[in-house]
Structure formats: C-alpha cells, structure tokens
Structures
1.
Amino acid sequence: MNPRALFVELIQIVGSSKAKALITSEFGDISRLWMRDRIDEQIWFDLLAKARKVAEGEPLEYVTKRREFMGLSFHIEPGVFIPRHETEELVEYAMDMINEGEIFLDIGTGSGVIAISLSYYRGVRGYAVDISRKSIEVAKKNAEEHGVLERITFIEADVFSIPWVFKEVDFIVSNPPYIPRSFLRKLPRDVKREPTEALDGGEDGLDFYRKLFVDSLDFIRGKKVLLEFAPYERTGLERLLVFREVEWYRFMRDLAGVERFVEVLV
Ligand SMILES: C[S@@+](CC[C@H](N)C(=O)[O-])C[C@H]1O[C@@H](n2cnc3c(N)ncnc32)[C@H](O)[C@@H]1O
C-alpha cells in the first residue's frame, strides 16, 4: 500500500489538516510517511477507521488521544475536556502573576494543562481540583509524564465542598464551565461529545463565578484570582464583581483582541 494513496484517502474523509494530524499521531511526523515505501495493511486499516470516527463527529483529540498545549504534549481521553488555544494565553498571564514560592489552585483542572504548565515552566507548587474522576486520573498521568507529579496535589471534588483549599493558596486560576445552558444544544456536534460538567455554566453561564464571588467570598479574600470567561458574559461578570465590592479587577484581551480573562484582587 503506498503512502500517497493513504494520504489522499484520509483527506477525502476528513480534509487535509485532520488527515495530517492523524498521520502525525501515527508516525510522529508527516515526513516519516513519505520516507516509507509502503504502509502496513493494519496501520492503513486503523487510520481509516480513526478518520471515519472523526468524520462522524468524534473530536480529533479523542481519536488521537493527544493535544499540544504550551509546547507540551498532553494525553486526552473521552470524558475529559479538550484544552483550547485561548487557555494558553490564560497560562501566559498566570505565569506573569505567580511569584516564586506562591501556591496555586487550579479549579477544574481537566487534563491538568494549566497546573502542569505552571509547575513545569515556573517550578511552583499547587493544588489541582476537578469534580470528574476521569479528569483527575488523566491529569495525574500527564503530571507524571512531565515530571511534576510531586509538585501538584490532585483532588477529586466539587471545589465548593472543600473550602479549606482556598485558605491554603495564594493564587487561584480557572477556566471554568461557562456556557449558558440554552446554548448547549446548539454547540457543534464534536463539542457536544465533551463532558457536560465541563461546559454547563448554568442559566446565564455565570453559575461558577457566582459560587466563587458570592458563596465563597470569605474564603478567597486577599487572594489573586485569574479566570477565563466567555466574551459575551463580560457585562454580567463585571456587574457581579462591582456588586461584591472586590478590591480591584481588570479585564484582559486574548490574541484576537477580545476580552476573555479577568484578574481580580478579592
Ligand atoms: C472548561 S473545563 C477546563 C479544563 C482545563 N482546565 C482546561 O482548560 O483545559 C472545566 C473543568 O471544570 C470541572 N468542574 C466543573 N465544575 C467543577 C467544580 N464545582 N469543582 C471542580 N471542578 C469542576 C469540569 O469537570 C472540567 O474538567
């Protein structure tokens, strides 16, 4: 079986960028495909099966089981949120905000990308909490792969049921669930395959922020907080911060120039 024919067949099923991603996941690099004279029948068969799954709406990362984030490669599985590129910008801000020796709390760690990037690049320690058992399993595996497992305490819990954890930390960072419930059924079909608890932000998308700044305010006083949010929620979020009389806040833009992150001194 010849490599070019395989590539063409994959492109016909999923388009060229996803075909390249599938090939890379198999061979490590697209150029390694061209170095082969022929492709093993089993590999051919497996790649076509994966391409068909993607064409049927399965997220690419659930098929390749990998996602690049901040220059690191992370293991991903169905049942775990797939990290987005915007969140790399959240991590860039977080790396500037956290000082040496400070302890972080990553709420809703998912595959662990925020906590692991912070520990890996800044050498800091912290807590990573997620309500999903699968996420904590995958995040621990990723932390081990990147050599930072002993720097991060992973906890499977609803963070609002363990308020003591807020007291232990200096810096809180999160990319929480923030999609308004009525939007959930309009999401693209691949996004719909991601876990609902990672997406569902309640009626107006602001449930998480209310729990943090209303129910948990006394626990997070004096802490630095950095959060991602949906740009269309900016007004509601600002209203909440003003109403709760937080000490100081500022909205920050992503690379597309859209306000997507907020830094708060509580
Ligand atoms: C949007 S995902 C973000 C995952 C990861 N931080 C990232 O950026 O790729 C939100 C995560 O929060 C978790 N989560 C939702 N509510 C939670 C809660 N009350 N306590 C802890 N984790 C929660 C979900 O399971 C999910 O993994």
Note: The two ends are 62 Å apart (CA to CA).
2.
Amino acid sequence: MHLRIITSIALTCGFLPGMLTAADPWVAPPAAAAVANPTPDTSATQDQGSAVYAKNCQICHGGSGNGDGTGAAYMYPKPAKLSDEAIQSQADGALFWKIGKGRNLMPGWKANFSADDRWAVVRYIRTFAAKGPGAGAAPVASATASGATAAGTKP
Ligand code: HEC
C-alpha cells in the first residue's frame, strides 16, 4: 500500500521536470547550425520564402513575424517573435534545423515541404529584422543624414 503511494509520488515528480522544460532555450546542434544556406540571397528567394510563410507560419508567428498570429493567443510557450534579436542572431543553419524539427506547439516541417523551401523561408525571416521594434529609428537617421541635427528634429 505504502509502496504504491510512494511509487505514484515518484512518477508524478518524474513528469514535472519534463513539463517545466517547455520554455527552455532551444539550441540547435552545432553541426546543424554550421550548415550554410545554399539558396541565393535575392528578392526571388525571399518571395519564395514569403509564399511558404504566408501559407504555413503566419497563422502563429504573425504577418510581421511578431509572434502575434491569430493562433497565438492561447499558446504556451508562445510562437517566437521572429523579428527579435534572439532569433535574428542565430545562424541560418540553426533556424533551418528548428523549422524542420519543431518543438512543443511548433510543428516540424521536414515532411511538408522541400529543403529548398525551408532555406528560402529562413531568407524571408531575415527581412523581419528591419520591421522589428528598432525599425522606428530609421527616419531619425535619415533626417540627420539630410542635414538636420538630432536636437533640431525635436519639437
Ligand atoms: C501552430 C503554430 C505554429 C506554426 C504554424 C508555426 N510555428 Fe514556429 N513556433 C511556434 C511556437 C509555439 C514556437 C515556440 C516553440 C518552443 O519554444 O518550444 C515556435 C518557434 C519558432 C522558431 C524559433 C526557434 C527558437 O530559436 O526559439 C522559429 C524560427 C519558427 N518557429 C519558425 C516557423 C516557421 C518558418 C514556420 C512556418 C514554416 C512556423 N514557425 C510555423 C508555433 C508555430
């Protein structure tokens, strides 16, 4: 009797650590991260990736990669904000590997579309870097470049 109780407590505790790893940092194996993106870095590749993204990723990651797609509201962990430094600082190979493999509510896409399409979607994810929270800095920089001082642009 006691043994059964102890066993069930041990089992419960055994499951908990597995559940708590849900929001752990997700690290690709170094060998996968080291693989170079074989697709050309052109607008044609970005367009190819954009089509894949609109169909398969936008529902969770949002139109601008901000992790705010319509499917995101009740998810834990949340779909990654692809415009974030934490994602943009990763190697193409690391993102490619994660997109293929998936984790938690993030589906693995290896069986759904070609490696070429997955590399292209990585190229497209790079375009979100400019649309992230730092994107507002651009007009200030161009005002300075056109001759106005930073102080002069204040109201
Ligand atoms: C059903 C919702 C859903 C869809 C569809 C989806 N994702 Fe995700 N994605 C997630 C969630 C949730 C996470 C966070 C997973 C985690 O950290 O365990 C995530 C994480 C990621 C990450 C971040 C990995 C990291 O370093 O933390 C990338 C990159 C990514 N997704 C790309 C994509 C791409 C590209 C597609 C389309 C091919 C896609 N996702 C489709 C839900 C989704």
Note: The radius of gyration is 21 Å.
3.
Amino acid sequence: MTDVLREPSSQLTSAGTMVQTSMSRSQVALLGLGLLLMLLLYVGLPGPPEQTSWLWGDPNVTILAGLTPGNSPIFYREVLPLHRARRVEVVLLHGKAFNSHTWEQLGTLQLLAQRGYRAVALDLPGFGNSAPSKEASTEAGRAELLEQVLRDLEVQNAVLVSPSLSGHYALPFLMRGHHQLHGFVPIAPTSTQNYTREQFWAVKTPTLILYGELDRILARESLRQLRHLPNHSVVKLRDAGHACYLHKPQDFHLVLLAFLDHLP
Ligand SMILES: *[C@@H]1O[C@H](CO)[C@@H](O)[C@H](O)[C@H]1NC(C)=O
Ligand SMILES: *[C@@H]1O[C@H](CO)[C@@H](O)[C@H](O)[C@H]1NC(C)=O
Ligand SMILES: *[C@@H]1O[C@H](CO)[C@@H](O)[C@H](O)[C@H]1NC(C)=O
C-alpha cells in the first residue's frame, strides 16, 4: 500500500518539487512572523490574557470577586445590574470540570449585568478558589451550605442555575428550600434519582429544564425525574453535548434570558 502511494510522488517533475519546497519555506516564514507578532502582542498587553472574555465581552461590566465569611468560605464572582435592576438574582453553580470562571469566560455574567440582573457565580467547595469543606459531605450539609451562601451574599430572589455535578448541591437545596427560590434552571444535574416523584411534585418553583441533544445519559436520567416538577418547561439545545452552555453559548443565553425575563 505504502509503496503504491510512494511511486507517483517519486515521478514528480523537478518543477513540482520546487513549488513544494518554496511553499513550505514561505509557510515557515509566515509561521515565524506570526510567532513574533504574538510575542510582541503578549509583551505589549497590560494584563494576563485569561482575564479577557471572548464572547459578549463588555468593558463596562466590572466583575467583583470575594470570599464569603465564616468557617467554610466560598469564592464567588459577582456582577451588578448595569442599568435597570430586575428583581431576580441569578446564582450560577458549575460542573465537575469547571468553576465560577467559566461563566466569566462564556460572557454569561457580563450579559446578565447588561440585561439588568445581578448575578453571582460560585466555586463549589474543593473547586477553583474554594477550599474543600467537611460540611459538604452530607446532603443536609450541602443544602445548608448553599443556604448560608445566599444569606451571606444577601441574595433574596434567587434563580439557581445548576449544571451536572452541582445537582449534588442544588437538588438537596431545592427539596428543602424551594420556597426561597424564584426559579430553577437544571442542566442535566446529578442526584435527581435520590428523590421521589412526590417530592418533585411538591416543588412549585418555575423551572427551565435545559439539556444538550447529544447528552444521552445524564440528560435523560435527570429529565425523567425533573418532569415531575409541576411548573416546568423543557428546552433541548441542538448539536450540543452534556456541557451544552459551552457548545452553544448564544442559544443558551437566549433561552436563559427568555426564562428570566418572564418570571413573575
Ligand atoms: C459603555 O458605556 C458607554 C457609556 O454609557 C456607552 O457609550 C458604550 O456603548 C458602552 N459600551 C458597551 C460595549 O456597551
Ligand atoms: C443520595 O442518597 C444516598 C442514600 O440516601 C446518600 O448516601 C447520598 O449522599 C445521596 N446523594 C445526594 C447527592 O444527596
Ligand atoms: C409557572 O412559571 C411561570 C414562569 O416560567 C410563571 O409565570 C407562572 O406564574 C408559574 N405558574 C404557576 C402556577 O406558578
């Protein structure tokens, strides 16, 4: 097979070979120029490049960061509404491979501020800048931890966005503290199988169930349970996997804003 393929190339005219060589030389030259430009840009830039957001970036939005007080401090990033303030406040949790910085990189925090929402993204214990917490080892502990964070940050009208692993926190909180939630946005969360249909039925919180079309495991498993929430709508993002907000950020943002804008 290899021999057969090699044969015609050995028959190339010398002109053909020359073209090939000069092309690769100019490619090398271009590459070198590119690297030099990158180096110059890098040296000339004021801040570390990972702080620039690459979608929906808005220089007018200031992202605040801090730690909650107490024994198990939780790191958070926060934006305040830019113009007209909406009533509900958005609390963003994260999946296993992510942290609060994800919502800054995606531009979600900036966009929410532009649209008049206060938004807070948390690093769950043991992720990003939050230390692991002993409290987080029990179901009750995780619910209380979230409740404490909402108290510390004075979030009154929370809409909780919970992708994947963060269901570990969000579901226990939902079951105990749903009267404190103005909205719930589960994105293929874990832990839904831990609760009965009756428990879901008792939660009246307006819910937007979001998932990626290509997520065949956790999305379906969680949807089977979340369907028992009495006031829910379901949106499936096309061509998106488990982390559908990363694969289709613009669709995700549109659907999230439509839900938030219509909350009572
Ligand atoms: C930032 O704010 C200024 C003044 O309000 C406004 O003119 C400008 O369009 C804003 N920039 C963005 C990207 O929204
Ligand atoms: C699910 O239930 C089991 C058994 O009660 C418990 O050990 C586990 O911690 C629960 N998981 C979550 C996420 O609450
Ligand atoms: C259901 O949720 C929607 C928001 O998605 C809200 O406008 C409506 O009032 C809720 N219905 C009930 C019966 O709570």
Note: The beta strands are 64-67, 75-79, 89-92, 118-122, 158-163, 181-187, 207-212, 232-237.
